[in-house]
Amino acid sequence: MAAKSKGKSPSYFGYPLSIFFIVINEFCERFSYYGMRAVLVLYFKYFLHWDDNLSTAIYHTFVALCYLTPILGALIADSWLGKFKTIVSLSIVYTIGQTVMSVSSISDLTDHNKDGSPDNVSVHIALSMIGLILIALGTGGIKPCVSAFGGDQFEDDQEKQRSRFFSIFYLSINAGSLISTIVTPILRAQSCGIHSKQRCYPLAFGVPAALMAISLAVFVIGSGMYKKVKPQGNIMIRVFKCIGFAIKNRFRHRSKQFPKREHWLDWASEKYDKRLIAQTKMVLKVLFLYIPLPMFWALFDQQGSRWTLQATAMDGNFGSIQIQPDQMQTVNPILIIVMVPVVDGVIYPLIKKCKINFTPLRKITVGMFLASLAFVAAALVQVQIDKTLPVFPAAGQSQIKVINLGTDNVIVRFEPRLQNVTVTPMESTGYMTFETSQLQSLNITSGNKTKYEIIQLPGQNRHTLGIKTTATEIIAKWLFDNVTSKPEEGNNLIRFINNLPDDINITMEDASFGTVTSLSATNYASFSGGRKDKIKATSNSRTCSVTSKVFGFGSAYTIIVNECTSDNLGVLYSEDIAPNTVHMAWQIPQYFILTCAEVVFSVTGLEFSYSQAPSNMKAVLQAGWLLTVAVGNIIVLIVAGASKLSEQWAEYVLFAALLLVVCVIFAVMAYFYTYTDPNEVEAQLDEEEKEQRKKDQHIYENQAEVVSRM
């Protein structure tokens, strides 16, 4: 039952009613952020048509900005607006940013010629950048405020309820993250558009924008129930001022005539009290250990960039379920939910039973090593993917594929004496690579018929040579294959060759290829992967049809229409580009290893930091921890930009090696670290202050007695 007591906000089962609004607000906000972020790198690659490196760079710049702005949010909340007004103000900015992102992904906005592609990509890029900056300001700015604001709603005697609130709060974060990472890729994979159907990025960004608007509305509705603590100044500012004064004072007294002090921060004692200096020393001791940590986040956050791009070249067919590349990110939150209780309840107790002293810093070291191992696993998967990728002609080269459309064997000789191939009826060769300058002519022989042809092909292109032997001659048809890369997003490219004597009109599902004359070919058309479609051919008022084979993902096929009898269409398939054959399930081991790394690194890191810092310095360490994430994403930009590695597997190995080196450095630092108990230090400070007050009181009483005798 709900109840309201004098001087307190309404409560429900002993909990302030206001926290339910805060939990719902956090769920919607995390859904909004992670949902948008899940599809972001594919939006860069496939909508804005940026290459993998630029897409990765902008993605990590955005993530870095999201983890830099919490410091700004904390300063605004603690020194100026207070937590409530900061959350509301920056949530409005956040909602506008999400809305701008959704608008930026509408191709019809600048698609004046109605061809399905934006005519002015610069407009979409500008809107996207504005949207992402606003989102970074919003999500980063409210990050340090919401959980603390929730904690403020409890009374001093509600410690148990406050602890449970934080558990529910973090559960809402994981729930929002998990659900959104499943849902938004499904929305992205839909087709929508006014003039032509495209991937539905406006919906994939629009739903997170709507959830952010709901988040803001829910938070504002609970306004009258909140306990709003007035801003009391930010401890970070005091710490920075203390450090700044110590450095400046030490520089002023750098002469040898001034005696050295035990610690360089002791030079702040002229202005700041002993307690603040001692607390700052403890914080700096922990922050020094943070220095190697960004390298872990440099690897961890590539789940949303490099690993997602890796999944686009893989087979996502899980039986009756088709997994989108950006949905593979859900493996991490799912495994987190499973692994945290397993590690805490099984692994750690087993290690303890083996009498191994598995200290927090050792756990963090193991986490770094596991993350490095995860990238070795990613590199091994990438090597297998690279083996399946098609090889396209380089500059000065041409590739030729021969299809025999007749009923007799065909021998093709590429002159001068370059290569001979024999092609059986209704079969085709693979693509053969030639130096364009050397390829001058070809001789085609079929039975007792011969055809000689001089050829001049443009370099760096693929070509298909269709050959059909009739009763009187050999017909050779050249087809220009205007495909220079593997189909994107797991789509398939399909084209048709009419091997019938009459003209036919070809359709495949809703796509019309128009009228195709005899021995002519259509252009390639793109179809979504993992499906089979109905093919229809109409000629002289007669229609034949057949259901196609399942094409897989990322393939290209030439379908040869051979016969139309009894309403049945006879077709043959010539594979131009092989489908993705490495299954997405092979990414699960690298996700599993990285999730294990996260459990022993991230959870332990926060726990260790809090155990080593004074109670009033938790916010400083929280800011420092978030800063390591930001720096980690900046490292991705630097390493990926400076390495200039042409092979993706080599970049994975590079990151793994760098983290391994940093892991060794951290292990050495951890070996020399001495654990401290902030409670003992603060208790000692309390005792010293108490003794000092007694001395001051005694001096005051003596002075008073002297004055009274005068």
UniProtKB/TrEMBL annotation:
Subunit structure: Interacts (via extracellular domain region) with trypsin.
Protein name per Swiss-Prot or TrEMBL: Solute carrier family 15 member 1
Family statement drawn from the similarity comment of this UniProt entry: Belongs to the major facilitator superfamily. Proton-dependent oligopeptide transporter (POT/PTR) (TC 2.A.17) family.
Reactions that this protein is recorded to catalyse: glycyl-L-proline(out) + H(+)(out) = glycyl-L-proline(in) + H(+)(in); glycyl-L-leucine(out) + H(+)(out) = glycyl-L-leucine(in) + H(+)(in); glycylglycyl-L-isoleucine(out) + H(+)(out) = glycylglycyl-L-isoleucine(in) + H(+)(in); L-alanyl-L-prolylglycine(out) + H(+)(out) = L-alanyl-L-prolylglycine(in) + H(+)(in)
Protein location: Apical cell membrane; Membrane
Major localisation: membrane
InterPro entries named among the record's database cross-references: MFS_trans_sf (IPR036259), Oligopep_transport (IPR004768), POT_fam (IPR000109), PTR2_symporter_CS (IPR018456)
Species name: Melopsittacus undulatus
Stretches assigned to coiled coil: none
GO CC term (a single one): apical plasma membrane
Protein function: Electrogenic proton-coupled amino-acid transporter that transports oligopeptides of 2 to 4 amino acids with a preference for dipeptides. Transports neutral and monovalently charged peptides with a proton to peptide stoichiometry of 1:1 or 2:1. Primarily responsible for the absorption of dietary di- and tripeptides from the small intestinal lumen. Mediates transepithelial transport of muramyl and N-formylated bacterial dipeptides contributing to recognition of pathogenic bacteria by the mucosal immune system.
Record-linked PANTHER family: OLIGOPEPTIDE TRANSPORTER-RELATED
GO term, biological process aspect, one: protein transport
GO molecular-function term, one example from the UniProt record: oligopeptide transmembrane transporter activity
Membrane topology: Multi-pass membrane protein
Keywords: Cell membrane, Glycoprotein, Membrane, Peptide transport, Protein transport, Symport, Transmembrane, Transmembrane helix, Transport
